[in-house]
Amino acid sequence: MAASDVGDHTLAQAEIPLLVKLNRFQWWFWVLLNVFLLVAGETAIVLLGRFYYDQGGSSTILATLVKTAGFPILFIPLIFSSASKSSSTPSNSVTRKSIYLIYIGLGTLLAGDSLLYSYGLLYLSASTFSLICATQLAFNAIFAYFINSQKITPLILNSVVILTYSAALLGVDETSNESGGVTNSKYAIGFVCTLAASAIYSLILSLMQLTFQKVQKKETFSAVMEMQIYPSVVASIICVGALFISGQWRSLEGEMQLFQSGKVSYVMTLVSTAVSFQVCSIGAVGLVFLVSSLFSNVISTVGMAVAPIASVMAFHDKLNGVKIIVMLQAIWGFASYIYQNYLDDVRATKLRRQLEANESRRVAA
Predict the structure, then answer these.
(1) Does the pTM exceed 0.85?
(2) Residue 340 included in any domain
(3) In whole angstroms, how large is the CA radius of gyration of the chain?
(4) pLDDT tens, 173-183?
(5) Which is nearest to 66 in space by CA: 251, 276, 323?
């Protein structure tokens, strides 16, 4: 569905909240680019995070910090973009203050969410972690319904039920606990933390969409960049404070010395994680901007289906029968939503053609 169809499409349903003035080819180009960034970045984050712990890393707060500390690289495209010549922040002082408060709130949620993800990945294998994260689509469908007035169709409801069932199946399956030496209690902690992180991440995306709709009201590249940069600044400040308050900063030098693959690998792992997270986040926020928070989560679910396969190749994780079933269910849940999106696109196209025909007859008369 091209962005040029959005104005007509909103008459049928509120799938795309913003009028992005791009033609069909341009819209699809940016959507596919953001899809690639999200899936590639998401897969890299999971693999690098698991590698960090496997090689001797132990600081959950540092693992959290690197997920947000890469925000300075985003200033490069922001500065050199022609869209950045005029700020996307409204000039009204009340609205500007509201946006700053929103950035602080989103940044705080982002810090807590990243910490929960870090604990989840500490206690779970990369494949199990990724499959549990796929439940974020179900959470986002709920948040999108209440926050963004997203229409819940039978196909979307089907996705929610399937993914919820998948998470429950992994939760009760003891054979999914394969992160060497992890007790069942720690596995349960990792499971709950990952599930909670998925819910919070979905909430963040829905709140971002609401901000674009109701507060930001600017369709610029800088709006997307700022929505990623400023919450990341807040989250990074919180993580740095937590790193010093907890005392974990004292153990970082020793952690680097004992990292199994060496100091250079230790630094590169952290830097690569920081870059991957920003790439992933830009893809996610970009899809929220171009389409919706629910669509962004659908694509994220694809990444969570790719990550287990990548983890099998990278870490030799075992894909037992339960995991294979859960992965297939995640793909089925994704396919259900995509088919719903296709039906919406067909309906919107028919509506647009009818409106164009009516307009032509009106002009001819």
Answers:
(1) no
(2) yes
(3) 21
(4) 655 555 556 78
(5) 276
